[in-house]
């Protein structure tokens, strides 16, 4: 069964927040696409062909040509299908701030969850404190750059930053349960308010994996030694 | 644009700062340059970049921007002459991809290759060479990453071979050579030959001495 060149195909993994970002963006823009679930412990020939450099999901295939790296894919989507809703604002400075915080999330916050999941005792506590500090920085930064009280950072419709952080909104709940921590809570009022708004968005509910499935996946990543 | 103040806060030996200098030069944008003493960071820098506390910071019309690749995108979107990014969305995605690849993959493996010892160094050097070789895919059939003229990727990554050359001199190990990476090697020489690029480069000997000191710190802090 050959894909028509103009077809949009998303190679992903159900528990990858990076995949969810792309799926959300495509749905937000109303772009029909075919989804291919990858088994990351047994990667397909196609995935290795389309992403030889990183061998990772997500990969977006459009007109037979692959695009890799979730943030790059989101910008690509916004440029090709440049109808509303726009994922990035028009103003160059605002765009720079959106990109800044999206990158901050990827460089700092996303990797910081692994130590919390995998470490125990004092080391785990330190990892939690580090993460809380990053969330505080994010909270302060968001307040400064996006001072108006919208439901979403993009105004009344989801944009790139909403997508990037929004997929974590579901993961946080499962994450808190599994790690017995509270990384996002009332102490980050702006992010907390906005994460709760995101949870209610129909596309979120439609796209993100069920809570129990995420909990089970996170639990399976933890080493089987008892908590100290 | 009149009354359009542009200020670049930087450090003479910093590659990310160099990227921004090149972008501003290519666009013909006048700016004020402020040299930071990184061992004693100014209140101004800490104020403008509280999150990372690093250079470069570009301040335009009083508003600060950090992170060099983001600054490049901002410059490209704000000043439309001599576009840095290509026109088509697919090529733009590729340009962003290669720039990010260098920062995320090449740079850490190159640093590891130069700072580790013994067997670990061999392994790191192999990985670094593999990553560098991959860049040749981006050069396929082109003189520069930007095509006939230099563009976003060229100025995003053009510093790396120069820095690698400096460290190769110090450490006596070869990472980029004409035989195994012919395209990368000829791209690099063509890139460095461009007057506007050469002009902004830090002086060779000064950078050599600075890098020696930097490497000493690196090797003393990494495991033997």
TrEMBL record, chain A:
Residues 91-225 form the GST C-terminal domain. It comes from the Eukaryota. Coiled coil: none annotated. Its EC number is 2.5.1.18. Keywords: Cytoplasm, Transferase. It is an enzyme of class 2 (transferase). The keyword Cytoplasm applies. The keyword Disulfide bond does not apply. It catalyses: RX + glutathione = an S-substituted glutathione + a halide anion + H(+). It is found in: Cytoplasm, Cytosol. Residues 6-85 form the GST N-terminal domain. InterPro entries: Glutathione-S-Trfase_C-like, Glutathione-S-Trfase_C_sf, Glutathione_S-Trfase, Glutathione_S-Trfase_N, GST_C_Tau, Omega/Tau-like, Thioredoxin-like_sf. Is involved in the conjugation of reduced glutathione to a wide number of exogenous and endogenous hydrophobic electrophiles. Belongs to the GST superfamily. This is Glutathione S-transferase.
Automatic annotation (TrEMBL), chain B:
Its EC number is 2.5.1.18. It catalyses: RX + glutathione = an S-substituted glutathione + a halide anion + H(+). Signal peptide: none annotated. CDD domains: GST_C_Tau, GST_N_Tau. It comes from the Eukaryota. Keywords: Transferase. Pfam families: GST_C, GST_N. Residues 88-214 form the GST C-terminal domain. It is an enzyme of class 2 (transferase). PROSITE patterns: GST_CTER, GST_NTER. Residues 4-83 form the GST N-terminal domain. Belongs to the GST superfamily. This is glutathione transferase. It comes from Stylosanthes scabra. The lineage of its organism: Eukaryota, Viridiplantae, Streptophyta, Embryophyta, Tracheophyta.
């Amino acid at each position: 069964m050959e894909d028509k060149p103009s077809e949009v195909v998303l190679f992903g993994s159900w528990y990858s927040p990076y995949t969810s970002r792309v799926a959300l963006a495509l749905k937000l823009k109303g772009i029909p696409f075919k989804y291919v679930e990858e088994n990351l412990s047994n990667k397909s020939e196609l995935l290795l062909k389309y992403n030889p450099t990183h061998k990772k999901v997500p990969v977006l295939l459009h007109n037979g040509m692959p695009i890799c790296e979730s943030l790059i894919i989101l910008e690509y989507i916004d440029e090709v299908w440049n109808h509303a809703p726009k994922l990035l604002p028009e103003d160059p400075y605002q765009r720079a701030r959106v990109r800044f915080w999206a990158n901050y999330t990827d460089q700092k916050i996303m990797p910081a969850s692994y130590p919390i999941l995998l470490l125990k005792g004092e080391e785990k506590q330190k990892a939690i404190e580090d993460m809380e500090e990053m969330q505080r920085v994010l909270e302060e930064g968001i307040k400064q750059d996006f001072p108006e009280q919208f439901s979403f950072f993009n105004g009344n419709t989801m944009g790139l930053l909403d997508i990037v952080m929004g997929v974590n909104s579901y993961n946080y709940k499962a994450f808190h349960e599994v790690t017995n921590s509270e990384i996002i809570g009332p102490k980050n009022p702006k992010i907390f308010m906005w994460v709760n708004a995101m949870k209610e968005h129909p596309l979120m509910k439609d796209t993100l994996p069920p809570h129990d499935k995420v909990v089970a996946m996170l639990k399976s990543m933890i080493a089987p030694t008892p908590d100290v | 644009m009149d009354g359009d103040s542009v200020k670049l806060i930087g450090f003479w030996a910093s590659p990310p700062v160099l990227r921004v200098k090149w972008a501003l030069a290519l666009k013909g944008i006048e700016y004020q340059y402020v040299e930071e003493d990184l061992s004693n960071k100014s209140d101004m820098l800490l104020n403008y970049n509280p999150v990372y506390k690093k250079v470069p910071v570009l301040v335009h019309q009083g508003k600060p921007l950090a992170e060099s690749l983001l600054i490049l995108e901002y410059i490209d979107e704000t000043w439309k002459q001599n576009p840095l990014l290509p026109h088509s969305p697919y090529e733009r995605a590729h340009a962003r991809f290669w720039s990010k690849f260098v920062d995320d993959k090449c740079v850490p493996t190159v640093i590891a290759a130069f700072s580790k010892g013994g067997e670990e160094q061999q392994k790191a050097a192999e990985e670094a060479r593999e990553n560098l070789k991959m860049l040749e895919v981006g050069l396929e059939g082109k003189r520069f990453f930007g095509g006939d003229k230099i563009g976003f990727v060229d100025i995003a990554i053009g510093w790396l071979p120069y820095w690698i050359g400096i460290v190769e001199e110090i450490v006596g190990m070869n990472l980029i050579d004409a035989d195994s990476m012919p395209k990368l090697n000829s791209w690099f020489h063509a890139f460095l030959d461009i007057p506007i690029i050469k002009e902004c480069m830090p002086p060779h000997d000064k950078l050599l001495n600075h890098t020696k000191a930097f490497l000493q710190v690196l090797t003393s802090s990494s495991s033997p």
